[in-house]
Amino acid sequence: MQGLFSHRPHLILAVLAAYFLLHMIVRLSIPNALELDEAEQMLLSQWFAFGYNSQPPFYNWVQYGVTSLLGVSLFSLSLLKCTMLFSSYVFYWLAARLTLRNGSLVVMATLGLLTVPQVVFEAQRDLTHSVATIFAGSLFLYGFFRTLKAPSAASYALVGIATGIGMISKYNFALLPAAAFVAALIDSDFRKRLFDWRLSLTVVLSVAIVLPHALWFLDHLDLALDRTLHKMTGDEGYFAQVSAGLARLVVAMLGIAGLSAVVFLSLFARSLPAMWRASSRWSRISGRILLIEIGAIALMILFAGVDNIADRWLTPLFLILPLYICMKADSAEVDAGAPLRASLALSGVIMGAVLVVLAMRAYWGPLFGDYQRLNIPYDGFAAAIRKDIGGEPGLIVGYDPHLEGNMRLQMPGTPVQSYFYPDFKPAFQLDAKHPVVFVWRDDKGKTPPAWPNDYFADVLKQNGLKQPETHIVTLPYIYGQPGDTYQFAYAVAYP
């Protein structure tokens, strides 16, 4: 098996394709209740906009396109995510093939993404915008190394496309191309690539991709920055902020890169002294990119008040780590036979474990009274509403995007309006057979609050509706223990 992959490293892509196909099967086989990010995508895929909230819109745009083509379904959600993640591995493999001479190391570098928890598990569990940054990061690394090795108009264009996509996927992605630019600038071998006229293709394409959202961003600074700055900055004194920020940076780096470092250092344990001494033009520039990224984040902590660094925010910045370690091994000309065998075995264990955990997460929590979002009975709630009104609503209105996204999945033919997205006011049919249905709940599934007039009064007024009667629906959890229930509230307003 090891010899097969070392001589035909492209076969690992077939294995990964099968792996992501299994991920789709697993997601479609468990309850169709949605996680947080999934529900947000289901809600926002109703309309196209240059910006929606504090997150950049690239993933929303692509999900909007997929949903428009394939319909509102769990399949359209899962297909996009698995396709984007598989494409990330493909571009990472292409980057490894460009920079590594040893086919075994190409396979090991590609499988190295399985040692990044945010890539192998969190991205599959619920993340969406981070999935887009993983894709953009892998595409950027491929385009960047291709430009350094064999520059062409296509390679420069690829870097521009990847940079643009990354910037409208997560704002912190900007650190990756910035670090790569500085690393190339200080490298005598690669500096000339920055003074090539074709770099204008990179700039033009990246600006063209970013510009529509950038204009929206400037017009919605409060909305775009408020939540992000609140997450990343605190209000402690300077020295407390700096010490907390640096400590959290270390913890985040261990979270994003710790497992990869342990795994690869174990695989190459006998060759570490030779790898430490060896270097190549590829390992030097990759190492500089990592150091520049870390240094830039440290400066943000020291001078910009950033003190809350999360490991998932470092994902696009540390994607290069497995490839960098394999570059060091390649430059030391290590015998990769035994490490590849161990890497293949470990990767098989990781893939199997991740699939099992994701497949069983809706089943084992209820055994201990630990209910997940996947156990919430949205399908039963939708069925109760249909039974009450004798069909489908004309409009669903809510103020909880997670609930509203799930309701759209359960009632795909009904537009859903959210208090938190006031710019979206869908056209809808309002008559005796298609009333407006208001939905809400308590965060913990306990007794819902009384009629939330602050959220719903405008909708009543705008459509000439009277305040309707509130109904409480109590349903058993999906796979729940006897007697464990979840409550929803709804109200039906007829014309």
Report what the structure shows:
There is one protein chain. Strands 2-1-3-5-4 form a five-stranded mixed sheet, sandwiched between helices. It has helices at 2-7, 11-29, 36-44, 58-70, 74-99, 103-111, 117-125, 129-149, 153-167, 175-185, 199-219, 221-232, 238-267, 272-277, 281-303, 315-318, 320-331, 337-367, 378-389, 401-410, 453-462; strands at residues 395-398, 416-418, 436-440, 470-476, 485-493. It is mainly alpha-helical. The longest helix is centred in the last third of the chain and has 31 residues, at 337-367.
Alpha-beta classification? mainly alpha
Measured distance between first and last alpha carbons: 68 Å
Question: What is the typical, i.e. mean, pLDDT?
Answer: 93
Percent of residues in helices comes to: 55-70%
Ranges with pLDDT <50 over ≥5 residues?
Answer: none
- Count of β-strands: 5
How large is the count of helical segments?
A: 21
Structural Rg: 25 Å
Sequence of secondary-structure elements: HHHHHHHHHHHHHHHHHHHEHEEHEE
The largest sheet has its strands arranged as 2-1-3-5-4
User: How would you classify the quaternary structure?
Assistant: single chain
